[in-house]
Predict the structure.
Amino acid sequence: MMRSYALLFIAGTLILASCAPKPYAATNKMYKSKAGNFAKMINATPKDSVIADSLKIPPYWVGTTNFGMRKPNMVIIHHTAQNSCEQTLKTFTLERTQVSAHYVICEDGTLHHMLNDYLRAWHAGNSKWGGVTDINSSSIGIEIDNDGFEKFSEAQLNTLMGLLATLKKDYGIPAANFIGHGDIAPSRKNDPNVNFPWKRFADSGYGVWYADTTGVVVPADFNSTLALRIVGYDVSKLAAATQAFRRHFLSIDKPGELTEPEKKVLYLLMQKYL
């Protein structure tokens, strides 16, 4: 008798689970449809593509046996600048917003993997880091639920640390390529905000940090603009790049020319990139 009750309980639980609301069923269906279309494009052989009639094309196709998937080589960290994780999920599932990210980390540490890592999310916008200008095509975007001013929860930071470990291992991403949205778009963005503990993550291999500045003497001919460019910043808008550098490496969000102590930090940091 007890066995029968147990089986009925399990069956009832499964029925309830199958009837549970699936709030993103419609957008998940759209995801699968778009992914399926991309799969068809990948499976199409090059011989079927349209090529100008003026070119000399042989009557047979030769497919190379040496290829692989394009892999991400950068990680861009954002804050959502919204009021809740649910609001961000909705934003990323509305076609009209034209924005997305691969991962969203909620305040309680819940991790939403919204897009296959090999696909191109729309998170970086008009941005530049070093010589890279199409950052969406080479990066993974991670959004942390945060209104842009508050501190990040330990649950979020712990989840992020675990996620970065996986991404670094899976794709061989260099430490220097874990950066913030404000670094690649300093005139438009400031995320993750000044409260993000960059040193903590750099100490674990996700980012670059500088050595102790005690006793450091900056050369008289030190060019701070050149140094910012060597690190990766777009210096076409120097004031914004300087402020982004401060936000990331000094946890200060203020404009103005670099002070002598700040130049010491930049000078040491530059050495990491030479």
User: Anything to note?
Assistant: Strands lie at 74-79, 103-105, 111-113, 139-144, 178-180. Residues 28 and 193 are 31 Å apart (CA to CA).
